[in-house]
Fold this protein.
Amino acid sequence: MDISFIGATRTVTGSLHLFEHENGKFIVECGMYQGHREEAERINQTFPFKPKDINAVVLSHAHIDHSGNLPNLMKRGFNGPIYCTSATRDIASLLLLDSAKIQENDYAYLNKKRKEKGLPEKEPLYRVEDAERTLKQFRPVAYKESFAPIPGVEVTLYDAGHILGSSIVLIEVDGKRILFSGDLGRKNMPIIRDPVVLKDIDHLIIESTYGGRTHKDFKGMTAEFRTLIERGKKKESKIIIPAFAVERTQLLVTMLKDLYEEGTLKNVPVYVDSPLAASVTDVFRKHPECFDRETYNIFSEGDPFDFPGLIYVRTSEESKRLNAGKGPMIIMSASGMCEGGRVTHHLIHSIENDDNMIVMTGFQARGTLGRALLEHAKIIRIFHDEYRVRAKVFFMGGLSAHADGDDLIEYIHNVRSERLQQVYLVHGDIEEATALRDSLTHDNDLSVTIPQSMTTVSI
């Protein structure tokens, strides 16, 4: 078997890995590269293989940087099955349709500007009909249920503990066991179960998003959140939280439910201003089989994703009214990296008021507006206009759904046996991957590689 590391090599986005065997070809992940428009267009439009030659896709989870280029793969000739868990299928269905609609709207606006300048129109990466065709190819499989993406290769999915339905992918071929981590979650986080540890692995392909960092303890995050809210109440702040629609919004809602029950949120309305996040939350409600024991018990007694004072905003009219509202209030809105969606409008109306707060809660890729805010930019651009950053910007680093460096080292040590021949670090900026490799290579018997894009290895 040959493995080609194509996307999410020495970066954290656009995950794509090609597996070639004498009986056929399949890919693990087909993610959208996210970054500067010109670079993203170039990378996403090009596959270093013929999509029609790919027999199947194995998808670890629904995040767009892992699933977002699937409709383009279909558009260019792929017509095989896409294997993933049922929860991943349900979430990906929402995300891919949303991605297509955003692209159609963005390119309609872009082409209007290009026409004014006498430039030719550009096509979006894919349209809604491409996404709809893609959804018909999904083939849900249960955790621990083996399947064959091509003859002679057996694949089994196990819980990765990252988001609802996320999977670790075990690939067995010619007597070899290859483990692909997808995005690895953390232990002892709310809602979903801890990552599964597998033994007797020959080759490990593992993410390194936070390979050189240590997260804050999640247990301290509720106290940190409480402090920010109390400050916001005194200053009558709008607290704007750019939040990923999948996992992060649901996690924050469960934390806020606890704070409501203790009285902290008295007279502080909470708005989830993202139709996508509201729909994803409905998917969470459909899949209690993915919950950890504590959340499952709460679900059996009531709704873990609802409490008095929490409002899920669906219409654009309701969203616009929030911009004229007065604090204190909390607005959670997508996108999590501030690259589009309703949160950009809330930032426009809030960021120049020094009583307001912006609370970042997740990874911010290079080149994104969210990264600029985290790096204390004084002036930002939204929709070609400049805004001075006067609102206070905070980062709650303990909410990450990704394993940190210590977690990754522990996981590798737990997986390790005499069989483990090679560890490949993917899905991490080079600084993070290098830090993790340096931590691991203190053990001279462990071979660790950070593959470049288009590196091919034979197993």
